[in-house]
Design brief:
Elements (H helix, E strand, L loop, with lengths): L1 E5 L3 H12 L3 E5 L3 H8 L4 E2 L6 H4 L5 E4 L5 H13 L5 E4 L5 H13 L3 E8 L4 H4 L2 E5 L2 H14 L5 E5 L3 H28 L9 H8 L8 H12 L15 H12 L4 H13 L5 H14 L16
Parallel strand pairs: 1-2, 1-4, 2-3, 4-5, 5-6, 7-8
Antiparallel strand pairs: 6-7
Helix pairs in contact: 8-11, 8-12, 8-13, 9-10, 10-13
Length: 309
């Protein structure tokens, strides 16, 4: 299948690579041309402006955006409405707030352009193990795009979730759960670190042990094991934990719908607190975000905050 990818950051670049490996034809665009040139050397077709896209794609055109949530998405959508044709398809695969999807879908529909929202999870490991895809939009458009989803995802790794906004809504809740899970792991390792047995424990070995049939086994524990093997006490990073928006949106949704979500809420509050203190549990969470998503950490020699997703 033929499609365009707009945005070649940590996720977008590897998604293009996976699509190329799956036999798809990808037209790649990035605001800075260096990344476009890099992926062109691997088989993608490079374009250096959005206006070039229509002539490089056969109709109906499929354009996938992997951009930071917010104004960047709106700016690109406005440009796309000027150059795309009725029947074309736009997918927003970034971490967009689901309520923004609904007016965007309506705006594109006025132009006859169809819109899909796809929550993407997998971080920097998606190229190797595949991306989990949570998909919203018209079901008939989902069926058209399914060969692309099938290539990007592992087996049973993509799901049609409902109309516009549904994909990003499910991804939002997914990320809220992720906050709570990482907080629990961080607190658990801090309890170990504060115990009389800390000197005899190797935390990489503990993480590995817990992944052998334990009820708390997970991919996050595999990443914790890797982080501890690199730095046994995570001494080289500060426990400064950023948040990229989804946790806040999940907590606000819980408040809006009257759902009790104390674990997710407190995990978000703890991230705010982490920017004022430096605890072992926060170093665990910061290390996990670095391992799965390539998020920047703050070294213990520096005081400035890390980079947001």
């Amino acid at each position: 299948m033929q499609l365009a990818m707009i945005g070649l950051g940590r996720m977008g670049m590897n998604m293009v690579r996976k699509l190329l490996q799956g036999g798809h034809e990808v037209v790649a665009y990035n605001r800075t041309p260096q990344k476009t040139e890099e992926i062109a050397r691997e088989g993608a077709t490079a374009v250096y402006s959005l206006s070039e896209l229509p002539d490089r794609l056969s109709r109906p055109r499929l354009v996938w955006m992997m951009l930071p949530a917010g104004s960047a998405v709106d700016e690109h959508l406005l440009q796309l409405t000027e150059i795309l044709s009725p029947g074309d398809i736009v997918i927003d695969g970034g971490n967009t707030f689901y309520k923004d999807d609904i007016p965007r879908a309506a705006m594109l529909e006025e132009k006859g352009v169809r819109y899909m929202d796809v929550g993407v999870s997998g971080g920097i490991w998606g190229l190797k193990v595949g991306y989990c895809l949570m998909i919203g939009g018209p079901r008939e458009v989902y069926r058209i795009c399914e060969p692309v989803f099938k290539t990007l995802a592992p087996e049973d790794g993509y799901l049609y979730c409902g109309p516009a906004g549904a994909g990003h809504f499910v991804k939002m809740v997914h990320n809220g759960i992720e906050y709570g899970m990482m907080q629990a792991y961080g607190e658990g390792f801090q309890i170990l670190e504060a115990s009389p047995y800390a000197a005899s424990l190797n935390y990489g070995e503990v993480a590995h042990l817990w992944n052998q049939g334990s009820v708390v086994r997970s991919w996050l524990l595999e990443l914790a094991e890797a982080a501890f093997k690199e730095d046994g006490k995570l001494a080289r990073i500060r426990g400064h934990v950023e948040d990229s928006g989804e946790g806040r949106w999940t907590v606000n949704q819980a408040v809006e719908t009257g759902v009790s979500a104390p674990v997710i809420t407190l995990s978000l509050m703890n991230r705010f607190r982490s920017r004022e203190t430096d605890t072992f549990s926060d170093r665990v969470i910061a290390a996990l975000r670095r391992e799965f998503g390539g998020h920047a950490v703050v070294s213990r020699e520096k005081k400035e905050p890390g980079t947001k997703n």
